[in-house]
Design goal:
With about 160 residues, the chain is an alpha+beta fold. It has 2 domains: about 1-35; about 50-155, Trna Endonuclease, Chain: A, domain 1, CATH 3.40.1350. It has helices at about 5-35, 50-60, 115-125, and strands at about 60-65, 70-75, 80-90, 90-95, 95-105, 130-140, 145. The strands form 2 sheets. Strands 1-4-5-6-7 form a 5-stranded mixed sheet, sandwiched between helices. It has a two-stranded antiparallel ribbon with strand order 2-3. A hairpin with a 5-residue loop joins strand 2 (about 70-75) and strand 3. About 15% of the residues are buried.
């Protein structure tokens, strides 16, 4: 062996060790991030047995949580704070994908236009980065419509 060979072997072992560390750390991070969306989802959550949960089950969805009130604090110009809330009807899952669920209300019909869907439903998909879409349940029609929103860059618009 020459005098520099030991240093090269040591550097290779260090590089291999660093690569193994980064690889294991990435796999652990993926496992943690694959947990269900929203902090309030828990295994002991009480899920009501009602017409909506039955209809979702018929369409292949597993309900993870029932109705939730999500408080929102709005700060105006770093001064005054306002309070509001967002009401989520259910959270559901199918094939590893998570969906926020909104139930149609007779007094507040949803127009099937892009701007109406954006204004009324997009916020529910944005609640958590793992939420892949919003299920809109129409009980009267026994229908579950899945809306998936994707945000495009300004230069990609058609």
């Amino acid at each position: 062996m020459q005098s520099g060979d030991g240093l090269v072997v040591l550097l290779l072992i260090a590089a291999l060790g660093f690569w193994v560390f980064v690889s294991i750390r990435g796999k652990m991070r993926d496992a943690v991030e694959a947990s269900p969306p929203l902090d309030w989802l828990s295994a002991d959550a009480e899920i009501p047995e009602d017409e909506t949960t039955s209809l979702l089950a018929e369409h292949g969805y597993r309900v993870l949580a029932g109705k939730r009130r999500i408080p929102i604090t709005i700060r105006v110009n770093d001064g005054e704070t306002l309070q509001s809330r967002l009401f989520l009807d259910y959270m559901a899952e199918r094939d590893g994908s998570f969906f926020a669920v909104k139930v149609a209300k007779e007094r507040k019909p949803l127009e099937p236009t892009g701007s109406s869907l954006r204004d009324r439903l997009l916020v529910y998909q944005l609640l958590d980065e793992q939420t892949e879409g919003v299920l809109y349940v129409r009980l009267a029609e026994r229908e579950v419509v899945c809306y998936r929103f994707s945000l495009m860059e300004a230069d990609q618009e058609e």
